[in-house]
Design goal:
single chain; 179 residues; mainly beta; Porin; five-stranded antiparallel sheet; four-stranded antiparallel sheet; rod-shaped
Length: 179
Amino acid sequence: MGTIGGPHPQDEHDFEYYLNTPSGTVYVSLSADQADPQENIPNQEELKVEISTKDRFEYLSIPLTLGYQLGRGRLTGQLRAGLMANIGLAKEFTVNDVCFENNKFKPHGGKGVEVEAPAFNTLSFDYVLGAGAAYDLSPSWQISLMPSLTGSLTKKFDALFKDPSDYSLGVSMGLSYRF
């Protein structure tokens, strides 16, 4: 016999929030069912869910740099500065796994997780600064090593709350042949 006029448990719960990812902010809509349909779960109950995602963005980067050589001889210093034009080719954002840490909930059979991936800017620009050394192995062959700093001038993704990483450090090593 059921109770009359008492609270009726809600079997399905909807959650909406923003998830910060390496590529920007993602809007997430998640539906969950109660593990025990007879339990009365308050509206303030935390979902405690872990979502693993995969971001994949492809860019064609075109460097527009100027270089300067310091000194003469077999060992020389090199400076490089310029811009990097990044042309967006493709984007992929998928949800790999959803794990409920609150045992009062279980994944909803029909809806599951819906995500709205961050906007993808098809053109962005970075600056590039580098300083290193080059060594002439022979009159035609040269080897070089150059640490560099790259920073964003424009965003690659639209982020609502936290911008993705704006700076990166790298090391370029090259072997060149002079004709």
